[in-house]
Amino acid sequence: MNDDKRIVPWVDDSEFSDVARNVSSCETYKLRLAWETIKIWLCRMPVSKIPRSIICTYELLNAYFENSSQSMALALMRFVSLLSSESQDRERPNFALPILSLARVAGLPSWLADLRNDIAHGIIPSTDTLESAFRWSLKYLSEFWASNVNYNEEQFIELDGLLKCQSLALTKYVENLLQEEKTTQLDVKEVFRNRSTYACFPLIVNTICSYGCAMFVGGSPPCNIVQDQAIKLKPLFSTMLYHKLVGELVLQFILGLRDDHSVDDDIRLEWCIAWIKAIKCRGSEKSILRDYVDGLSLDWRKALNHILKHMCNKYRDLFMELLIIRDPPIPQDKFEVIMSHIDVFCGFDVPNTHELQTQPAMPRQVDNIKEFLHMTQRADAKSVKIKENKDNVKFKIRCSRFLYTLVVVEKEKVGKIKRSLPPSINT
């Protein structure tokens, strides 16, 4: 299958097919629909990037709806000039041939070439002649539209067959990994090189979660299931990391959440939490998935939007963690406002402003030094307490609602953290 990529102004194959069907119709309202759609396409991309046949279709329809002989004459002249010279402009741009010769090569009749020359010399043909030329030109262009629709259909049939083969290979590979059977990565690596890879991500996630459901029925808790599966799926994650596809996999786990109170949803949620924890604890040894999140690029907007659409109590903490690790980070004051709204939506008791000022700060663990130092920059950060124990050193900073704690095991990092504290912070 041809793996070339090209940016086009139409949304999908269906939109292109609709325009092609309307162009080949003789009904005025369908021609108007085609004209309006192509007009939108011309706003999306430069004219030089759009095929000439589409440009000619638009100009002919535009002249037709203007109901002007002069506009139709100019549109027909442009039609003959653009289509007859297309091959010459592409192959020999500095070499000019007579328009009659070029028109013959392009499959245009000689009378249309003569009509074009008459218009170019200021002679406007009769209305009947222009009408006949318009109908013939539109029929000629319909062949362009029909041939491209057929080509797209052939490509989709080929792509469908390819996806089925890849789906079988991926399913078998993931199943073998989860069952700890012998596997080969040759076929799977080829799948991840192909542009159809993204269509296979839901299949990978569904296979992983279905096996997780079977283990859950056997009595294992979701966190242990994810831990066990993550160990078995290391070869898959390593391959996806190499092709920079881990972010898309994480997104598919999130997009699969539906709050349908099923075991499958619980397994997906546990996987989401595990991935977010790995991103949050990047570089530490607290997550089994930490080796696969380096350079990870996640579509935060799509992930947060999906969770908001299906927000419930059990997704609240996942949403909060996504906000915390979002890049670029959200200012703390906005973060607290967002979470207060989420808490209200989920039915949690939200204290008023007076209660916030009088109640003791709630403890919260910070796993990242950079995140802790970011907390010290906050306007409501007043003081830092440092407690040195035998095995570690604890840094505690009190903000408006929370008491953030960072536990440092490496002694050499303690001095660096102390030197990085703002002068305005009391210790």
UniProtKB/TrEMBL annotation:
The entry's keywords: Ribonucleoprotein, Ribosomal protein
An example Gene Ontology molecular-function term: endonuclease activity
InterPro entries to which the protein is assigned, alphabetical: Las1, Ribosomal_eL38, Ribosomal_eL38_sf
Highest rank taxon of the organism: Eukaryota
Entry annotated with the keyword Ribonucleoprotein: yes
Pfam families: Las1, Ribosomal_L38e
Signal peptide segment: none
GO biological process: protein-RNA complex assembly; rRNA processing; translation
Gene3D superfamilies: 3.30.720.90
Annotated GO CC locations: cytosolic large ribosomal subunit; Las1 complex
Protein family per UniProt: Belongs to the eukaryotic ribosomal protein eL38 family.
Protein name according to UniProt: Large ribosomal subunit protein eL38
